[in-house]
Specification:
By secondary structure, the protein is mainly alpha-helical. Helix content is about 70%, strand content about 0%.
Length: about 325
Amino acid sequence: MDSVVLPDLWIPFPSRINPFEAEVAEHTTEWANRLGLITGETEAVRFAGESYARLVARLYPEASLPDLALAADLNSWFHVFDDQFELADVGRNLHLTRLLAERTEALLRGEPPGPAAGPLLLGVADLRARMRIRASDNWWARFSADLRQCLDGALWEVDNRISGKVPDPESYVHRKLDIAYVPPSFDLIELIEHFEVPAAIRHSPEYTTLRHEAGHVVVCTNDVIGLRRELLQGEFHNLVIVLWKANGGTLQDAVDEVERTIRIRIGRYLAAKDALEDRFDALRASEQVRVATRRCVTGFEDWMRGYLDWALETRRFTDAVLPGEVGSFHHELID
């Protein structure tokens, strides 16, 4: 890894940040402490260094304070939850992994937390209650379906780790958006904008392409910036590593290929953005719908650029945490 040169990634969108970052940092730290997601001094230092308030401040730069606080709590929960599969005891036991996924799904359906529920599951219940106040039934159905797909992706990852199976590039790319929790995170853009993109636009080839390509730019950025961390952890769910194993070239060759992929995907994104204007005309969309939809498209761009900016600032990728060094919440799965 020492001989590998990571590129300066080209993300041609403005760098922005929400002015409520400090208030949200205080809020989400208090929320995580109250639930018990932060279990001691080491976890507190790590939580602060990974800076999820800074992340959402970059991803949602125009969000109101209440909306940004919700986004910060959700993203904090996503990262703690994902680390259970990747670094904690849960991720070494497929039975526990399935239990965690099943109980999370039950909470998404509105079932009450059981008597053994602890920080992770109580966090789901809290987030669901707060989002249901804000969200329509249609939005919640999409968000919860997308999150269920992410849970399925987490099970796939754990199965691969336990068996030592490195996925092929096609399978990995097919799963990557889900294992990175991108679809429900992109759903949140509409909740924060207080606008739901009409189905005729959302399902159009142009908007579908925008969402798909933006998501893959984000996850490719993650895999480049997070490469050193995941090599140290022995993690292989990373496009650079998957390509390196599959193609037989050097690690630098794989890094360079992922950089080219980012450029290609941004090119497709920009072409789809232009084509979306013709789709508006074909659908005779009102000016109000056009303006609001463009704001959601800007949300994808804030995600692409904001994730890069955060990835270069956070300690999540520089302070590598090894498997077994993260506190496990598996006790809340045992009734």
